[in-house]
Input
Amino acid sequence: MASMLEGIRVVSFTHFLQGPSACQLLADLGADVIKIEPAGGAFERSWTGPGRFLDGYSPFFALANRNVRSIVADLKRPEALEVVRRLIEGADVLVESFRPGTMERLGLGYEELSARNPRLVYTSLSGYGSDGPYKDMPGQDVLVQALSGLAAATGRADQPPTPVGACVVDQHAAVLGAFGILAALHGRERTGVGTKVESNLLNAALDLQIEPLAYRLNGFEPQRSSTGVSSPFYTAPYGVFATSDGYLCISLTSPDRLAAVLEDDWFTQIGPDEAYDRRDELNARVADHLRGRSSGDWSQHFAASKMWFAPVQDYDQVLADPQVLHNDSIDSFHDERAGEVRVLKHPVRYGGVRPGVRTPPPGLGEHTEAVLAELGYDADTIAELQEQGAMA
Output
């Protein structure tokens, strides 16, 4: 599986999550991803969400930089820019996640680089797009959840809008970016010419809501539920219910089916045409039943009745879940400072195999000399560039 994209060289000017994660998806499949970093290193080397490090090593850097090579270049120096341009001239893909206009100011914009390398797939990953009224606004996951309607669609009617508890927009934008790159590479096989690919957080957040926005675009009014129906557009039951000792999630069961499973003829009075309008009544009735028995009892009963349900698991339970373990979802690598570092594997299987860690996330500038040598620079020139501070 590590050879599927062998021979594809990707030059990465990325930081935070969207860009590095998109590049890691390609690197997992064998692309030669070369990460261009400043002298102090990419942002994600020195930051973690909870402020926790593994003996100085960032789990945030570990999660999206495996199977990648690192070089250090001071892009403010013309000598470094010349090296980078030579690297891009022989590359297949460029990925950048700077604010719009930054690459153009460096002389690394699409028009200039595609003129030098017409086969280049030039990829820009941003918050809102490369132009438009929001192009200079900070693009960050939770901000885009708010702006896109995702937060307003989540939570009970009497509670504030609720963002999702993970950076789902960043990661979806990364996947869309990688998807666009692969599509452009496939198209290049027919035309011989690359193109510009753009993915942004706002588009990704809207795409995550493809179903509810389709309803809204066609005239249906969303209604958040006061009883916990976890969608403005779905009927009950659909969401999380408390049991006597925990929580279960139930999904889309008809009133007649509920009447049989819960042994309560009250549900039979709700016809199909009333199910949405009376969903809070229906949901509250289901909640009353579930509070009376344990999660284990209900799970056995629902499984026997072929109900759509799932336990509500915390992360420790998820990581010990038998299907997660069967799917081989976790990988690890060794770092001299941190010891064993555990990460999620590539999410897709190919021929029954999920690509994992071939090489751990690189040390800062670990591959500068090797990459320069591949570009034809001799040892003396490499040493001179390093002494000048252009490369490290």
